[in-house]
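Thread amino acids onto this structure.
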């Protein structure tokens, strides 16, 4: 199954299960069906189910006990999913400011920890863009790429954060589609050019280059969207993670 398709199915299943919790149908303490049972009930594969369950666990909605299954925590106290909608230019600036702090570090860590299978997913996501696709489809694929990078970090909190930014990222991609690029490049060409150094740096296991490539991509995306440079009050010279203290998958 293609990565993009699996991500969409996982998102849909997550939303379904989250609604069961929010509505009270799955109340606190409810033992939810097993992975196999959920896969059969919803007609999806077990990896799709596993991704949805991981997201629910990361958000504190369910808890898994070895040998006993997964149980719903206090649904009324479950955190609100996602971030609040973007309503104005200030919100857009804040969204990019947040992404610059999270995604650049995620790319650096991914370069250190990525496995061969992670690299395959990143490359597939990078190659998935097609000319003439809708703004929503383009936004979804762009998010798929950034989630693939976050997942390669082997830190589920990076990937969960990126998943929760889905609406903000797609909203931004739709707005970008309304602006005319001053250059002759198409939107697809721009993304390919800017994503390529990120892919190359992670493949080469160069964390500082991955950090810089992601920072450059997000900065240019913000400029295209806003039509002007939003200067940061302060900028780090590199990742907050201690590169020399962190090991890759083989350490």
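Threaded sequence (251 positions):
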């Amino acid at each position: 199954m293609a990565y993009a398709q699996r991500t969409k199915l996982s998102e849909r299943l997550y939303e379904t299960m989250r609604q069961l919790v929010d509505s009270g149908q799955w109340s606190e303490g409810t033992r939810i069906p097993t992975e196999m049972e959920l896969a059969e009930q919803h007609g999806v594969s077990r990896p799709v189910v596993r991704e949805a369950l991981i997201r629910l666990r990361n958000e504190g909605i369910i808890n898994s006990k070895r040998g006993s299954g997964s149980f719903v925590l206090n649904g009324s106290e479950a955190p609100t999913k996602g971030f609040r909608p973007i309503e104005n230019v200030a919100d857009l600036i804040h969204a990019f400011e947040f992404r610059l702090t999270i995604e650049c570090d995620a790319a650096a860590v991914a370069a250190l920890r990525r496995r061969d299978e992670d690299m395959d997913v990143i490359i597939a996501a990078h190659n998935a863009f097609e000319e003439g696709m809708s703004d929503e489809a383009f936004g979804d694929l762009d998010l798929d790429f950034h989630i693939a990078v976050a997942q390669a970090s082997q830190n589920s909190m990076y990937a969960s954060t990126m998943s929760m930014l889905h609406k903000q990222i797609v909203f931004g991609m739709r707005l970008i589609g309304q602006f005319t690029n001053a250059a002759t490049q198409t939107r697809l060409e721009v993304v390919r050019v800017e994503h390529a150094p990120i892919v190359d740096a992670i493949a080469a296991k160069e964390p500082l280059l991955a950090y810089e490539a992601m920072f450059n991509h997000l900065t240019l995306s913000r400029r295209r969207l806003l039509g002007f440079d939003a200067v940061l009050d302060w900028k780090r010279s590199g990742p907050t993670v201690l590169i020399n203290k962190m090991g890759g998958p083989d350490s």
